[in-house]
Amino acid sequence: TAEGFHLRLLEHVRKTVKPGDASNMIATIDNYCYTVESGMNVGDVKGKILDDIVLETNPTTVLELGTFCGYSALRIARNLPENSRFFTVEFNPEHAAVAKEIIHTAGMDDKIQMLIGPSQEMIPQFKGMGVSHFDLVFVDHEKDLYKPDVILLEKEGLLKKGSVIVADNVVYPGSPDYIDYVRNNPKFKSTNYMSELEYHKDVVDAIEKSIYIG
Ligand SMILES: O=c1[nH]cnc2c(O)cc(-c3ccc(F)cc3)cc12
Ligand SMILES: [Mg+2]
């Protein structure tokens, strides 16, 4: 069952990866998910879309909502400029513990700051941590929190003209209230990138990119 996936993945990683190599860690996780059991990482196909958006945005301050095992945190951190700040928020302490070890083994500790707690409680703390705004936000946590968390980010003044919101799973499992909100909001310019559910070629999913125009 999916229950315990993170622990089985960590055991596999401990036995197989080359320490200090983020790309090898990413490839190892994808291989496990294709050959042993799939986990809810964004995966290699949607991951490439995320990579391209990060590279085109060239963000210096980034937020990820939903760390899980740290896979997308590594994909994002791998493409950030030197002087950037990257925060990832995870509410499940067991998942966070696995992500911490995976990020450490990949040698990316100094690029990624993980916060453990509910996103609705963590978001209001960023101004106090010296964050003026986020250039890019990757939303990949609980689908019912997509809309309230983006609303909270704007309320907290953490979005600036040009800030990019990248949302995973807008088709499967889907976040219909978020899609309806962001596509009908004149403050956002949205683009849909049709793709497939991670590790499942036969299932449609998509990534939505929404640029905040304020
Ligand atoms: O809960 C999720 N959070 C973030 N990303 C997810 C994601 O990419 C996939 C899934 C998921 C995958 C297969 C399935 F049969 C049911 C749900 C869940 C999440
Ligand atoms: Mg996802």
**How many individual helices?**
9
What is the average of the pLDDT values?
98
Strand ordering within the main sheet: 3-2-1-4-5-7-6
Main sheet specs: 7 strands, mixed
Taken as a percent bin, the fraction of beta residues is 15-25%
Helix fraction by DSSP (H/I, runs of at least 4):
40-55%
What's the number of extended β-strand segments? 7
What is the general shape? globular
Radius of gyration using CA atoms only = 16 Å
N-to-C terminal Cα separation, in Å? 43 Å
How would you classify the helix and strand content by structural class? alpha/beta
What string gives the helices and strands in order?
HHHEHEHEHEHEHHEE
List bound small molecules: 6-(4-fluorophenyl)-8-oxidanyl-3~{H}-quinazolin-4-one, magnesium ion
Low-confidence stretches: none
Please characterize this protein's 3D structure.
- This protein has 214 residues and is an alpha/beta fold.
- Helices cover 42% and strands 22% of the residues.
- It contains 9 helices and 7 strands; from the N terminus they run αααβαβαβαβαβααββ.
- The chain has a 7-stranded mixed beta sheet with strand order 3-2-1-4-5-7-6, sandwiched between helices.
- Strand 4, helix 7 and strand 5 form a beta-alpha-beta unit.
- It is globular and about 50 Å long.
- The relative contact order is 0.15.
Descriptive keywords:
binds 6-(4-fluorophenyl)-8-oxidanyl-3~{H}-quinazolin-4-one, 214 residues, 7-stranded mixed sheet, 9 helices, alpha/beta, binds magnesium ion, globular, 22% strand
What's the gist of this structure?
With 214 residues, the chain is an alpha/beta fold. 42% of the residues lie in helices and 22% in strands.
